[in-house]
């Protein structure tokens, strides 16, 4: 096997790491910073009909006023499951039932709640870091396989350095995004 045949697909690794960053941005968008938003329910999935389903596929999500989100659940049998998923989500919102409508009053953010939300943001960031490190591990596994197929020691070091630099860059982006989100949450 010639040297130009042994290559690691860093574009694929970068694309997958970017995917972890996009997922993190979506999760951060769902964290509330004092105003009601339908996107705050996006990361919550409900066990419905044998599979995990987003809330917006089980009912109509509305924001009738700045401090209230309502969900009009289409199937009566799903109301309790949606309510349970919201309670267990870590958003700190206490759902109120009115028939098939679930009302989510958004409480004013106090200092304690802001600190809790920064911890939730930290958890989201850690999951993104784990996803990025998993992609890094896949890249390192590709390098090991290529070494077994005749990759030179110098090429192995080169590709390991490339993958590590890519990983460090994306972990830095996660850290910066977390820092910005925590500052936004703590802002009164």
Automatic annotation (TrEMBL):
Gene3D superfamilies: 3.30.1360.40, Ribosome-recycling factor (1.10.132.20). It is found in: Cytoplasm. SUPFAM superfamilies: Ribosome recycling factor, RRF (SSF55194). One of its GO terms (cellular component) is cytosol. The keyword Cytoplasm applies. The keyword Cytoplasm applies. Keywords: Cytoplasm, Protein biosynthesis. GO terms for molecular function: ribosomal large subunit binding. Residues 24-186 form the Ribosome recycling factor domain. CDD domains: RRF. NCBIfam families: frr (TIGR00496). Belongs to the RRF family. Responsible for the release of ribosomes from messenger RNA at the termination of protein biosynthesis. May increase the efficiency of translation by recycling ribosomes from one round of translation to another. This is Ribosome-recycling factor. It comes from Thalassovita litoralis. The lineage of its organism: Bacteria, Pseudomonadati, Pseudomonadota, Alphaproteobacteria, Rhodobacterales. The gene is frr.
């Amino acid at each position: 096997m010639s040297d130009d045949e042994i290559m690691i697909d860093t574009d694929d690794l970068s694309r997958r790491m970017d995917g972890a960053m996009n997922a993190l941005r979506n999760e951060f968008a769902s964290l509330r910073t004092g105003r009601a938003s339908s996107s705050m329910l996006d990361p919550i999935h409900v066990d419905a009909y044998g599979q995990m389903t987003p809330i917006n596929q089980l009912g109509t999500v509305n924001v009738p006023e700045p401090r209230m989100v309502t969900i009009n659940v289409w199937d009566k049998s799903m109301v309790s499951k949606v309510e349970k998923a919201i309670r267990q989500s870590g958003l700190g919102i206490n759902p109120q039932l009115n028939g098939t409508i679930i009302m989510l009053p958004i409480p004013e953010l106090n200092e304690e709640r802001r600190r809790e939300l920064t911890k939730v943001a930290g958890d989201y960031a850690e999951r993104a870091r784990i996803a990025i490190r998993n992609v890094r591990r896949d890249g390192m596994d590709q390098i090991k396989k290529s070494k077994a197929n005749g990759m030179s020691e110098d090429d192995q070091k080169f590709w390991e350095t490339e993958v590590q630099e890519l990983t460090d860059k994306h972990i830095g982006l996660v850290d910066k995004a977390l820092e910005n989100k925590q500052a936004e949450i703590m802002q009164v």
